[in-house]
Specification:
By secondary structure, the protein is α/β, with parallel strands linked by helices. Helix 1 packs parallel to helix 3 and helix 19 packs antiparallel against helix 20. The protein folds into three domains: 64 residues, no CATH class; 192 residues, 3-Layer(aba) Sandwich (Rossmann fold), CATH 3.40.50.150; 213 residues, Serine Threonine Protein Phosphatase 5, Tetratricopeptide repeat, CATH 1.25.40.10.
């Protein structure tokens, strides 16, 4: 904390920043915010009370820009996270070209464009990919920081900004000028730059169905959950049905919107706005339908994780036959459903009763994700993997980013020998819920069996960290009969086998 700025003033400043810029700062950043506030007060020669009162009432436009310069990160480079640009060129552009529209216009928004490298990369790829001259590509690039927009308009970059740009593209679209590189005029004119605040109700920016593609990478990760939810709603409204959304690698729509399908190609995740495809088609169809039919249930191979957890709870194997012989219990009323009751039955190893409890719920509860997930796990541990997979697919029709369902499907795919599909489901689970330990552990074990020691060490190291803080009820549900200590010991042993250090 600076000597001249009191704690309560920094806290007021933080609240005002959240309201006018959408940026969220935790308590550890209060000192930094105090320094920024002090610089603004000295620059404007205002008292803190007068300045903060203006921000809290109605932040003036001429102050939003300077604050953005102080508080946002503008460093980027051409072809950053190139896997997403490959998906843009090889999946998104062909898809949108295929959509019949008159006139032939592709509309792209780069939201939080910083100094222009992302928007110009998109323009380069559009020119390289779309050979039909009748198509017009319009790229709108917006940012709240006027300083980075000025740099973008100059289109003059250092060699460091082109460090990931392929040499042939550098030769075609840049010319050297001293120590800098100047972007080709044909690319520059494809992009329009504007100063915009993403968190305001900007009707011009967020017109309905205004864009085919939106890149909004590494922007909303700084927003509060409420502001992210509002911004995602604006993005969904502004994307055409079937349009595409790219977020940063550390960002996800999980829990923020159900307006999008999740896609995974080119080793990256991105989203497709619902409503632009034939009924019944699923962008994750290649993931949901493993090459080996789960219903065939080929014999498991040695040392498979699904075998390990089944052997750890062999008493569950009799669970399904016991169900057929049991007298049908009284149906549970929907309001009486409680996940804690089912988990308590699991904890007490009363597996038959747990599945009975789940299956005797009224029909209207059949779409409850918690009920479906618990049923799938009980079935998988009981060896009924075809039935477990079917329940998971029902669940994914409701919530296609359900991490637990993808993890169970990974076990099912491993059981029939389809390790590629198993790893794919694990990766979707990890993306959907980065704190979920079990798919990380499974990915590590799959990589270890495939002889990929580097990948195994990476995944097992992360799994070890996550297992130590995983929720106890989730370990009970997904741990396959192992407690936390046993899972940690297993992970440490596998890590040592791969040359890693627990």
């Amino acid at each position: 904390m600076t000597p001249d700025i009191a704690l309560h003033e920094s806290e007021r400043f933080r609240a005002a920043i959240l309201r006018c810029l959408g940026l969220h700062f935790d308590d550890a950043k209060l000192g930094f915010l105090g320094e920024v506030l002090q610089r603004r007060l000295q620059k404007l020669r205002q008292s803190s009370d007068a300045y903060l009162g203006r921000l809290e009432h109605d932040a003036p436009n001429d102050e939003v820009g300077p604050l953005a310069q102080e508080l946002t990160v503008g460093e980027t480079y051409f072809f950053r996270n190139n896997d997403q640009f490959r998906a843009f060129a090889e999946v998104v552009l062909p898809d949108r070209i295929h959509v019949q529209r008159t006139p032939k216009v592709l509309r792209v928004l780069s939201a939080g464009c910083a100094s222009g490298e992302e928007a110009y990369t998109l323009a380069i790829l559009a020119r390289e990919t779309m050979t039909d001259p009748s198509w017009d590509v319009c790229i709108r690039a917006v940012d709240i920081n006027p300083a980075v927009l000025e740099k973008a308009l100059r289109a003059r970059y250092s060699s460091w900004a082109l460090r990931e740009t392929p040499p042939d593209i550098q030769r075609r679209w840049f010319r050297p000028d001293g120590r800098d590189m100047i972007l080709d005029e044909r690319v520059r004119t494809a992009v329009t730059f504007e100063a915009r605040n993403l968190v305001t109700d900007d009707l011009d920016l967020w017109q309905p169905a205004a864009y085919d593609v939106i890149f909004c990478r590494n922007v909303m990760m700084y927003f509060s959950p409420e502001q992210m939810r509002a911004t995602v709603a604006s993005i969904a409204r502004a994307l055409a049905p079937g349009g595409f959304l790219f977020l940063g690698h550390a960002e996800t729509l999980r829990g923020f919107s159900d307006e999008f399908h999740l896609l995974h190609t080119h080793e990256t995740f991105y989203y497709k706005r619902k409503g632009g495809q034939k009924a019944g088609a699923s962008p994750l169809a290649h993931v949901l339908s493993p090459s080996n039919s789960v219903s065939a249930l080929a014999p498991s191979f040695a040392d498979a994780w699904v075998d390990t957890i089944r052997e750890a709870s062999e008493r569950v194997a009799a669970l399904i036959p016991a169900m057929a012989a049991a007298d049908p219990p009284r149906r549970i009323s929907a309001p009486a459903w409680n996940m804690a009751t089912a988990l308590d039955l699991l904890r007490k190893e009363r597996f038959t009763e747990a599945l009975t409890y789940v299956r005797q719920l009224p029909p209207e509860s059949g779409d409850d994700p918690g009920i479906l997930l618990l049923e799938a796990m009980l079935l998988s541990h009981g060896g009924e993997l075809a039935a477990a997979a079917e329940v998971c697919r029902r669940l994914l029709q409701i919530d296609e980013m359900n991490a637990g369902a993808h993890y169970v499907l990974a076990l099912c795919c491993e059981n029939v020998g389809d390790r590629a599909a198993a790893a794919e489901h694990d990766r979707v689970a990890v993306y959907s819920d980065p704190g979920f330990a079990m798919p990380r552990l499974h990915l590590g074990l799959l990589a270890r069996r495939a002889g990929d020691r580097i990948a195994a060490r990476r995944e097992l190291t992360q799994a070890l960290i996550l297992l130590k803080r995983e929720d106890a009820s989730r370990l009970l549900l997904f741990g396959g009969g192992f407690n936390r200590e046993a899972l940690l010991a297993l992970c440490e042993s596998a890590l040592r086998d791969c040359g890693g250090k627990p």
